[in-house]
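Attaching the record inline, Q. Sequence:
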Amino acid sequence: ECKSLVTYFKQSSLHLKLEKSLKQESETRWNSKLEMLESVYNQFELIKDILNDKNELYRIENIDCDILLDLINFLKIFKEASNCLESSKNPTLHLVIPWYKTLKEHCKISQHDSEVLKQIKKIVNEKITLKYKIEELHKLAIFFNPKMKQLKILDSDDILWVKDQIREHYSLICEVNNIDSNDDNDDLYAESQKRLTKKLCKKSSREFIDFSEYYDS
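Structure, as predicted:
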């Protein structure tokens, strides 16, 4: 309904009567759907007045503002996730698992949710499980996040696997560089981790959602 409404306003030049232009959805830009919904919601009363003057209120009779607001609030975090994970200027591999867990948590149904929102959460949660694949590389990348070196975000089996993989690769690095991996191993291991985390996880100039519950103590 919102998409049809925006199209109608654009084609009939009614958008010129609005304080701000309505945003059209783009098939190639997922976040444009949220922008479209927000543009309709933020000017809904003015849209209603314009349509009332033209005896065309039927065009918004199926748009429930409460549901629209629920949907907008639900989608905002997905915009934040996509902006963060699509960054081309900062490392993002170590953020895949934190965002996965955050989005899954966001989709948990609450008793306070409307029936429509419950259905939306159920569908989106299933889509995340189906489409959002966690690979071994994502688990390894957690180790190189300076704030998550204790790997609290992973389950116990994955923690053991990551540590084994890191030590195995560390031994190979020592071998290639003619370093005895048994000499002061803990100090060398810690220093190696420090150097790698500094290179791989430069702090982004943009602040995204708080993952502090997974940070080291």
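Residues 148 and 215 are 5 Å apart (CA to CA). The two ends are 48 Å apart (CA to CA).

More tomorrow.
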